[in-house]
Amino acid sequence: MDLSSPATAMLATDPDRQRRLFGSDGLLPLWIAEPYVQLSPEIQARMRDRADLGWYGYETRPKSVIGSFWSWMQDRHSWRDDSLVTSVSPSIGTSIAVLIEQFTEPGDGVILQPPVFTDFKPLVVRAGRSVVRNSLVLGDEHYDMDLEGLEEAAAHPTTRFMILCNPHNPVGRAWGREELAAVATISAANDVFLLVDEIHADLVLAPHSFVPFAVAAEGSGVRWAATHGPIKTFGLAGVCDTLLITDDEEAADRFRSESSRLHLTRNNVFGVAAFETAYREGGPWLDAFLAAVSDNVQTLRDGLPNDIALVDPQATYLAWLDFRQLGLDVPELASWLAEAGLALSPGHWFGREGAGFARMTIAAPPEMIARAIDLLTKAPR
Ligand SMILES: Cc1ncc(COP(=O)(O)O)c(C=O)c1O
Description:
Elements: H1 10-13, H2 15-22, E1 28-29, H3 41-52, H4 63-77, E2 85-89, H5 92-103, E3 109-112, H6 120-126, E4 130-133, E5 137-138, E6 143-144, H7 147-155, E7 159-165, H8 177-189, E8 193-197, H9 213-216, E9 224-228, E10 242-246, H10 249-261, H11 269-281, H12 283-303, E11 309-311, E12 318-322, H13 330-340, E13 342-343, E14 345-346, E15 357-361, H14 366-378
Parallel strand pairs: 1-13, 3-4, 3-7, 7-8, 8-9
Antiparallel strand pairs: 2-10, 5-6, 9-10, 11-12, 12-15, 14-15
The protein binds pyridoxal-5'-phosphate.
């Protein structure tokens, strides 16, 4: 695997976007959550072959495409598709938007656990539903869920839905079986539908492992659906569809009839090719990639200056950095980072709980991580 040269991180390096978001351009681009390394050569070769066919009309999706996902899940995470319904969805955001629409009414509450992925809140607000915050709690090393707060939030009569991020972007928690089972029990007791976004499932760093919500929730009676797909793991967000998985026949039927009503059914020819190749042939690339991400975590642990702390990354290729010792407010931290020469995602993008933190993508060549440490160390205090 070639980690020596960064892949062209087009959106992250775009000067107009950098100027708009960070006030200047030419910054070291470690903000968008995508791999900035050479992607799987098997997938690239398969897409080249597909391009060479010279025919790009309507494409059917062979059953083997979904089959490739389930063989992968069984091999890597011992998760099987017994009694589960798997549907194709153009994006995670689409799945969430459709299920919110189907399982809640305007004005109902949707629980989020900030700091959390930026798209969730707008999906709730644009649907005319209200966000119910159950903020994560930072302990000595990592974040935990506030399960008492969750019980209270779920018990509120207008709370109908929750979005759980497993593993959690941006704080890098791979939730354990007991925590997930507790969320399932609380949601079941309060009739809250649980959407579990598991798009980072394959990005768990040793010695941690991914626990599928479906497995932890067995026997709880919770109504749930989970999102999956190769878009983050293999850097395929520009081509591939995603999956929606559930054991709930009604949720699957409602999702499928909405997809059909809105005609969300076009299959991208490259997406179909890349999806199956990722899951059938991408294992060795992913192993090397995860090893490289773990090396980058170690480089950060060893090299960060004493006044910047790393929140223990158990999963994702995102490092959640704690700048609170610098004593800067939100705009001051933003200017400090830009003046240091770095484009990181400021923590408050993920909710007010993220103030004083920033998220750094560490799916990058080691030279980029070393450069980031150097810039952070030399920036004036
Ligand atoms: C937790 C999480 N969910 C969803 C997405 C994106 O999904 P989509 O673009 O398919 O809506 C991301 C992208 O970074 C993410 O981190």
